[in-house]
Amino acid sequence: MNARKLVIIAAVVVFLAALAAVKKNVRDRQAAQEDQAPPVEEVTLVSDLPANLVTRIEVYKGAKPEEKLVLSKEGEAWTVASKFGVKARPDEVDRIFREMKVLKGELRVDSSVVFPDFKIGDDEGLHIIMSAGAEKPLLHLVVGLRRVGWNKNFMRLEGEQRIVLVSKDLLRLLRVFGDEGKVDTAYAADYKMFSFDPSQVVKVTIRPAAAKEPLVLRKDPAAAPPQSSWAFDPPLQSRREELDPDKAQALVQAVADMAGQDAVDPGLAQDHGLRPASTEVILEDAQGQTVAQLNIGSRLESEKVNYVEARPSGLCFKVASDTVDKVKGDRASFLRLKQQNKK
Length: 343
Fold this sequence. Notes:
This protein is of the alpha+beta class. It has helices spanning 3-36, 90-100, 115-118, 170-173, 245-257, 321-325; strands at residues 42-46, 56-61, 64-74, 77-80, 86-87, 103-110, 126-131, 139-143, 153-157, 162-166, 201-208, 215-219, 230-232, 241-243, 262-264, 279-285, 290-300, 305-311, 315-320, 335-337.
């Protein structure tokens, strides 16, 4: 091996040794800085949210307080007060309480001067208020609209300036996306219109406004399949025709399954063609109690929906017109033509 190669090898060895020394020096300096860094201060905003005491939840952006989601508890059931009082889905309400039961995280800054940087001021942030009746709120939380990463939000308590980074994404939970994202005032809304057991219905009355007499179907609870348990009242006179019980039962099931696409203001019932309704459909049980009534209003051709009022709740919905057509049939729509025997 000549002298030139030896010099090159020696130079490489010296370079690698120097590089290793530099890396060690950098690691040592970083370790020293970490040892000198102050410990992260953990702050608890909510330690144990008393969900059983909460009867009202309000959510709004400070910049647009008029666009407010309001959930209200009536007895044991929750309703979406900001959507005309429709039922709220219990699972969605439970998710809010689960996510907010404990809120704690890393203190980032203790100063109101930086509120605009986090979009967490009273006039910018997302306000979440939980209260019990008319008493002082149990919790008033402000969530910053500026995100730091997935599944993390900046939060503070109303009236305080400490900004805490919490590993919870309440913005995503409440479907507030981006600085300009709107608050969903229909969050958790359940548009299913009725809750009853279809097997308990023994009478159906269809009353079109233009008809002189209503169409009445009655069910004999004692009749067992395959015998027809449904019949017209008054009975049919023609021997060539008979009522198809499957069609009658399908109507009852269609009412039980009916759900709106959206809820509308019951105060505008007359504008929606519901005063009077074009057709009323009434379902009764064996005790003569009305278990469901729907009043069918005008049709909105542009959306292919009808306005429908559900009773006894009094709530009004937009319902797909093809769904409405299933429950507003005339006598002929329930008939089954009997086949004559050929000789």
